[in-house]
Amino acid sequence: MFFWWLPEGDKNYRKLYQEHVSRLLRAIGVERVADFRSGPAKLKYQLTLADRMDEMVALQRVHRLYRRARKAAARQSAQPPAPTPEAVRG
Fold it and tell me: Using a CB cutoff of 8 Å and minimum separation of 24, what contacts does 13-18 make?
């Protein structure tokens, strides 16, 4: 991906991103974008080409929340189980 993350509040940056990345994608070939294996990258490029940057930022938000939840779940499963009340009383 050319730029993985777009600032949520910077509309001017998003506009420039959309213009320049769309130009690059058209030079690569729009039909080749459809053949990308990475689902998230393909979706982000398709949203960029369609000038749907608000949806792309929303997708980024969802992706960020998903990644945080997965990291939290991994941390939680790596911790030893909490002692039971019976074990604490001894």
Answer: 14/53, 14/57, 15/53, 17/48, 17/53, 18/48, 18/51, 18/53
Q: What would the pLDDT profile of 19-53 be if each residue is shown by its tens digit?
A: 998 999 999 898 888 888 888 788 888 998 999 98
- Cα–Cα distances in Å, from 27 out to 21, 22, 80, 86? 10, 9, 52, 67
Burial category of 12 from C-beta neighbours within 10 Å (exposed 0-12, middle 13-18, buried 19 and up): exposed
Instruction: Please name the residues in contact with 30: beta carbons below 8 A apart, sequence gap of 6 or more.
Output: 49
